[in-house]
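Note on ligand handling. Small-molecule inputs were canonicalized before submission; formal charges were left as drawn, and no protonation-state enumeration was performed. Where a ligand contained multiple stereocentres, the stereochemistry in the source SMILES was retained. For zinc ion, this procedure yielded the string shown in the input block below.
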Amino acid sequence: MNDEPGDQCCRIAPDGQTCAEERPTEQSTCPDCGKRLRRVSAAHVMHQVRSPSGRDIKSTDSMAFCPSHGCAVVYVGGGGERFETGDLRRPPAYKTGVESDLLCYCFDVSGADALSPGGDAFVSFISDRVRDGDCACDVLNPSAGCCLGSIATYRKTRAAGS
Ligand SMILES: [Zn+2]
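Structure output:
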């Protein structure tokens, strides 16, 4: 049983649309925050980082994503490689602390949008799209998974003023 709120997307999304795998990689916890990592493909990392041609990423590399809010580490490689928010083309708002950065990469919802008075409407829009199978989080989102959990956590922690 997983208690991350975002994992509901895997239950409401149509078959074939799934979030990043939960199972740990060779590097199972984040070297900075200690949170459990989620496996992503090396191709996914290449889609997310700036100038991948200048980095030594091979398609067979084992890569994992750190889901922690506030932790600057985004990807960790099996060989100890680290990719931080500054290495990403579009780092997520919950890691940078910058409200104009994105939370939902499929439908362009920023941290500021999620915190705005219309925040609930953005969340229902995203939930409806997930239900209809319109998401592309597996490619677009740095986490390779659904954004709903990270948005819920982001709104909760921001509302609590931390
Ligand atoms: Zn971390």
